[in-house]
Write a structure and sequence with these properties.
- It comes from Nocardioides albidus.
- The structure is a single chain.
- The protein is of the alpha/beta class and about 350 residues long.
- The protein folds into two domains: about 5-215 and about 270-300, 3-Layer(aba) Sandwich (Rossmann fold); about 220-265 and about 315-360, no CATH class.
- Helix content is about 45%, strand content about 5%.
- The protein contains 15 helices and six strands.
- Strands 2-3-1-4-5-6 form a six-stranded parallel sheet, sandwiched between helices.
Length: about 350
Amino acid sequence: MARRVFVHIGLPKTATTYLQTIVWSSRDRLLEDGMLLPGLGRFDHLWSSRIVREDPRLPKASEEHRTAWERLRAEIAAHDGDALVTHEFFAAASAEQARRMAEELAPAEVHVVITARDLLGLFTASWQESLKNRGTAPMADYSRDVSEDPRDVWNWRTLDLHLVLQRWSEAVAHERIHVLPLDTSAPREEIWHRFAGLLGLRAGAYDLSRSFPNESMGVVEAEVLRRVNEHLVAHRSLGAARDRGMFIRTFLADERLVPRRGEKFWPQADRVEECRRRNEATLAYLRAHPVDVVGDLSRLEIPAELPQRRTPDTVTDAEVAAVATDLVATMLADVRELRVAPPAAPREPARRGLLGALRRR
């Protein structure tokens, strides 16, 4: 049985994609360092999070999906060393589900790893992420309540570190919970070095060239995507998870809207104050309990004075129309390339990714 199991539970939008890309592209190197990354691929960890969180849709899932957690545990049981399980959706687990997960990993010593950031930045980034997952809620209405459903990820249930700590500390002692504050002003490699150091890895021995951040859209671009999603919902289009990931997230958001480098933005004033209140509760909890903070706790503070930025409710119909019409022109060029361009024709960098994959079919 593995000696220790590090369960990296997010939070969402805290460099999780960046860190997961590094470890999944370096499994052999991890084993050289004594760290097992179990499973056939990162989807096994996503599926395991759904099993742990008792998703009621599991009976209709494939056998590969339904057996993911069992297969991960079998690999961990057969490994002599440490193991890593990583997916941000574990953060939504209830206290009871977290306890059961820790028990199912026994007798290995379970450590919980939480990458975190100030709640205002996290709230803003997570709203965008909800749009990439076909969300339609305006930012003013996003995550107004705390969901009691462990399936709800884009909600205070997983965004509020205080709530996540309360639930998971019922399963794992505070001393074995490690919080890594994200320093958004530092080079992105810095969070990898702290993460690797905690896990006992040789941070400098890993190839970081294939890692990438999950980047954000500008305020107008985000509103365009939100309105597109409203039409998709009305027409019941692209509802399957695979379609959402391929066409909404990758093709439209990441490859067409993100590269526009639009304006940064904040939530409305009342949501900023809500983020401040919840953030202060998190900081008070961390100061009062023996949680292992790996890094500078002040990085979780929200500055008293914020730079001036727009809010999504200020986006005009004219701005939406300007971005949308430019997007239509871009996508017409995409369609032409897909249908009539010769296979060897050079492609602009922005046209690679999903379009290139479709063109090669």
